[in-house]
Amino acid sequence: MEFRYLGNSGLKISEITYGNWLTHGSQVENEVATQCVRAALEVGISTFDTADVYANTAAESVLGEALAGERRESLEIFTKVYWPTGPKGKNDTGLSRKHIMESINGSLTRLKTDYVDLYQAHRYDVETPLEETMQAFADVVRQGKALYIGVSEWTADQIRAGAALAKELGFQLISSQPQYSMLWRVIEPEVVPASEELGLSQIVWSPMAQGVLSGKYLPGQPPPAGSRATDEKGGADMISRFMKDDVLSAVQDLRPIADDAGLSMAQLAIAWVLQNPNVASALVGASRPEQVHDNVKAAGVRLDAEIMQRIDAALGDLVERDPRKTDAQVPATRAV
Fold first, then answer.
1. Annotated active-site positions, please?
2. What is the pTM of this model?
3. Per the structure, how many domains does the chain have?
4. Taking residues 146-168, what's their average pLDDT?
5. Which of 82, 83, 87, 305 could form a Cys-Cys staple with 53, CB 3.0–4.6 A?
6. Is residue 207 part of a domain?
7. Banded pLDDT at 241 (limits 50, 70, 90)
């Protein structure tokens, strides 16, 4: 495993971050989830990402149990706040001071830790003054409940505004957690340049485009049983944008490229996002321990210019690059 600094900070994180969205407390049994976490630790992954909303807080609890007994100082534990949790009452959502303060306490209890290394705004809250949100984050940091603050799926303008307020309040934003893959490059025109300027790194989710870039989905054929495309708890909806025959056919053209690089298609996809110097880590989940052992082999891989060019040629115009797609991730009203 190799490690990179997160943003303009002294915090180092593993190039592969273990994430438990759509798995822990949902798609896989707790015993298997714990086995996956143990596998991550065995291969040198030290960074773990979750969120209070995952499986309506159950994912945090499963991760907390799985990491119990580990040396806390050797881990980097990340979680997030924004989406509705619990009974989903009127204040159980958003980035108000009330919700942030109550949510961090709940997350720490479930994760069985006194602090998280990174606390992230899971989306931008259009209904709460940004000043209120950033003041609450500043207080969370001063209370020692979070060491650093990050955001997820914020636009470049929102990142700039948040970073400016954070500076005034005596802390800094150090990370952005957007979707990013060979097929989804919407952060490149605006979010990445703003982040580089302000000292934020990307912790990217879905580097395998919900599993499509693993090559297991074939054009004209039904998805494999038990795969994300068959998951009715949310996975099928998320992957649907990529489940088109032209996309699936182009992905199969990546197979010889992966072979020439000595990588599996999944490893190629993860290694590709790590070539971007603004990416600190790739978020990768698992439903089986073997997947962890396979995916971690992408750490430390350097793809040469020819491989990168061949990937671009294979995917062509199927790549989504429109930066307005980040705007679309921001809820127009606070989620309920």
1. 54
2. 0.92
3. 1
4. 98
5. 83
6. yes
7. confident
